[in-house]
Design goal:
The chain is mainly β. Helix content is 0%, strand content 44%. It contains no helices and 28 strands.
Length: 342
């Protein structure tokens, strides 16, 4: 039907618990689900049937608190058929379990507060399907006037029973992009690095954007011909742009190697402006035809992925080591560092 003005909201209609008549008693306690009932504003909200006859509010019965009192005492054989209470105007009542959908929820304009035992302070998300790897199981997205700026999501990593936490941000004019991931095993990855020692500032000179450990394979060469190697594996640690190398290399046969000696296979090319010479004590060689007490060193040219062997003595100063100064059983040990643009 049509309404003049705003249509009233459907009230909350309640059928109270059954009441047994007591001979000679007029007053009875009203209950709903065994709890005393007082959720009403006026006696005119009550529909009471006694012995199959609807009773008139006020003249046939009154209500006060949780007590309904008939105009006269009831007797054995009387039956209170039912008591129905019509909800207050604009009272929505309590929804039935599992009946409120997300479409029925209004947009919150203030904070939502949770209060209770610590064990209850949580939101549980439980999917009903098996999703593919990297598919969000849940996500919380923050927006500024409909434009996403940050997102916290939890996703399946590689199996049904493991997952990872992803933190994503959106740069100006860009898209929401994952920046930090906490893997199922606890390792954390940060795509743009971590700024150290500057609080929450984003200072490029303080950003650690790379760390890596591994091995590398070195080969004695003259740039064209390679020697046959006995031992040829070294280790490296890369921290940001700084590469620290270690290694022990032995030669089984020089073959056709001649001229200046070099060691190829560096894990990263030297930087564009970082040619490097070792200091004393970082290099060691054996079975070399060089002057006693000579210091072995290394030189890495800019943008090069190899190093040159050097040696120093009082007579010649620093010179490049030649293949003719190395025997087939030559050995080198090194510990040096250089910078890379990688």
């Amino acid at each position: 039907m049509a309404y003049l003005g705003r249509q009233p909201v459907i009230g909350n209609f309640v059928k109270l618990d059954a009441i047994s008549v007591v001979n000679g008693q007029a007053a009875y306690t009203m209950q709903n689900n065994s709890v005393n009932f007082t959720d009403y504003a006026t006696v005119n909200q009550f529909l009471v049937s006694l012995n199959g006859v609807i009773q008139a509010p006020t003249s046939s019965f009154t209500v006060s608190g949780s007590t309904l009192t008939f105009a006269s005492n009831l007797a054995t054989g009387d039956v209170i058929d039912f008591i129905i209470v019509f909800g207050n105007s604009l009272s929505a009542g309590t929804p039935t379990d599992a009946t409120v959908t997300s479409a029925k929820l209004a947009t919150l304009t203030s904070a939502m507060n949770f209060q209770g035992a610590a064990s209850d302070m949580r939101l549980n998300f439980d999917t009903t399907d098996t999703v593919a790897n990297a598919t969000p199981l849940m996500a919380i997205t923050a927006k500024n006037k409909t434009d996403s700026v940050a997102q916290l999501s939890m996703r399946r990593e590689s199996a049904v029973d493991d997952g990872y936490i992803a933190l994503s941000t959106q740069p100006t004019g860009g898209a929401v992009t994952e920046r930090v991931r906490i893997h199922s095993g606890g390792v954390m990855s940060a795509t743009q690095g971590i700024a150290l020692g500057v609080g929450t500032a984003n200072t490029s000179s303080n950003v650690l954007d790379d760390y890596e450990e591994g091995t590398w394979t070195g080969t004695i060469s003259d740039g064209t011909n390679n020697a046959t190697m006995g031992s040829n594996t070294g280790g490296y640690v890369k921290i940001g742009s700084l590469v620290v190398l270690t290694g022990y290399f032995t030669i089984s046969s020089l073959g056709s190697v001649s001229g200046n000696l070099r060691l190829t296979g560096l894990p990263f090319a030297c930087g564009s402006s970082n040619a490097f010479y070792t200091s004393n004590g970082l290099g060691w060689g054996a079975n070399l035809s060089i002057t006693d007490d000579t210091s072995i060193g290394f030189q890495i040219d800019t943008n090069a992925s190899h190093l040159n062997f050097t040696h120093w003595d009082n007579t010649s100063g620093t010179t490049l080591l030649q293949a003719s100064q190395l025997t087939a059983s030559g050995q080198f040990m090194m510990n040096l560092s250089y910078r890379t643009d990688a």
